[in-house]
Fold each of these.
Amino acid sequence: MKTTAKLLLTMMLLPLAVNSKAQEASPLPEAREAMARYEYSRAIELLDKALESAKEASEIRDLSLQKARCLKRMLHYDAAAETLASVMTPGALDVEVAGELADCHVSSGRLADALGLYSILGMQHPDNLYFSIQKASLLFKVNDFQGCAEEGRAICARDSIPSVLSLVGASLLKMGQVDSSLTYYRKSLRLNPSNPNTVVSISNILLGKKDYDSTVSLTKDFLERNPDNLGVVQILGVAYYLKDDQDAAYEVFKQLRKDGDDSYGTMYYSGLNALALNRFEVAQDCFESAWETDSSDVRLAVNYGVSLARDIQLRRKNGVMINNTDRAIRLFGKAEEMAEPDHELMYKIHNGLGQLYFMRQDTKAALPHYLAAYEHNPKDNALLVSIGYCHRLNKDYKTALRYYEKYLSVSKEGTKNHNFAKEEVNFIKSELHMLE
């Protein structure tokens, strides 16, 4: 009886023992369940366990592929690459393993290694568009723009893919082939008219060509279908500003600010636009916001200073009487420290400082800045009047006379400055006559 009971107990426990051994022998079902639950760390542990007992090369390959994919999901690209490299056979390229390895190299920044693999894969499988697309993308990333354009054109001859057309356009632009670049970007936009990046790329080319009307037309057409794209709205505002349609630009930038766009570009161009319209308080507020974002842009410092210098009125702000003069002088000083040799910027800086010191009736301080401004921009003949006037107030009559006469020789009769200079010449000559 005891023997029979013992036998029955053994038979009942046997399936459990067999099942336990089966689980120990094959952890793959549990690994797949872990992957299905996105528990990749657990899946990697189980796949490692499976690899310890794997004997067949094909089984080791399949397990290693699964492990590498889990490692990639956990952003362990180098470990994934090592796993894949361990199952690659010299002289025989496994397409699936090589493709996964190339992808690991891209993710870890080893672009040259990735490019080499995709090039080999492309040669072995010339009809595989995916390998060609990856190769073209990598050629652009390693700055081989000629190679990227050639590879991209070959792809487009087989299949018109908008992103590849744009990639060719970007490569041609990098090589200075602006018109050809524009052609490819336009082809891309025709196939995918809702892509804002393509609109931005085309717009930047058109702005560079000073074709402001086409830029306005392109962006307005896009915004009719996609009205909430801030990047394209910004370009529309810039196009209006550069076109010198300042009222239209003001409405665009005002709406952007109302919608909460306080990005550097929007605030900087809002300031330039407001400055062009002599809306000095708006310009100052916009420049101040841009300055808080980035105080390293010398052009911002100059234009911010100009907005303060031109706004000579005293006013209350938050209950406090403010005077812009000192702030403007500091900004111009900061800009002068930052500026590299740039005649346009240096002209604005010194002209602004000259005006500020002149408004303070400090003609001795204003004079060297007016002289410097004229040196950087001798086309601004009005500076000759300012320089002459400073000399006259400093009682250097002969030098003042020389500058006034130089101005009268190039100015237009009947203008306000011309008439003022003539009156000054008469005054100085009578003063010099009396001194004799």
Amino acid sequence: MNQYQNLKSEDYLEPDCPLTQKPEDALHSAVHIPQKRITEKMDELMALEDFAGAERLLNYWLLEAKQGLDLQGEFYIYNEQMGFYRQRNEKEKAYEAIEHAFDMLEQLNYTDSISGATCYVNAATVYCVFNEEEKALALDQKALKIYQNNLEASDYRIGGLYNNMAQTLSQLSRYDEAIEYFKKAIEVMLQVEEGKLEAAISCLNIVDAISAKEEESLESILFKEKYLEKAKSYLDDPELKENYHYAYVASKCVGIFEYYGYFVYAKELKERIRRIHEGN
């Protein structure tokens, strides 16, 4: 399954931003792009599968950030591009976004910061998709050290990183390690507001890892059923908002449920997705 990585503006805003150390004229001339609003619009466009619109949105705000001298905004857009082009399987553009973002790390003093760590995670996810797992794992491990030194253990970013590391380990056929990291991701995400969506993804990733790890047996069947039911219960949580993000995550789960024989539930998820799209 595809890793989850939803960027938030605070991922790219340090408490003591180096931009505040720049000359007075440069500070006041910067015009900051609306990162939160851009992320929300990207969620909407991706849920609607309007990929051309999503790319136009990113290109538009990248130009705005550059023209407004908004270095943080420019860095944010490059990170958004990593995720977008990864999902569109456009390797060259995804790698180009990584290069641009990495070039800004030192300039923004982000090399060993939370912002830098999130950038490493995003880049690692790209490398994993394009079968450079060792490179991805090295970046994830670098990010994990920074996160552990700067974030609470229950922070959603650590949960997302655990999931990504587990996915990479799965691709390296290190399934036992992968399953343990997926479990760690679930533990963290269950402590996060609306984190049950991401927990559901990690449950389904565990099911895939079990299938890849061993021959079918009664024990493996029961283990997979356990995590399929967990994923179902998380997606069915009445406290979850049925919004574009829910629709996007649910769309990634439908095929997995169908593959493992949960046809009725997959149909129910499709109906929820339809209602969300029509209601918005």
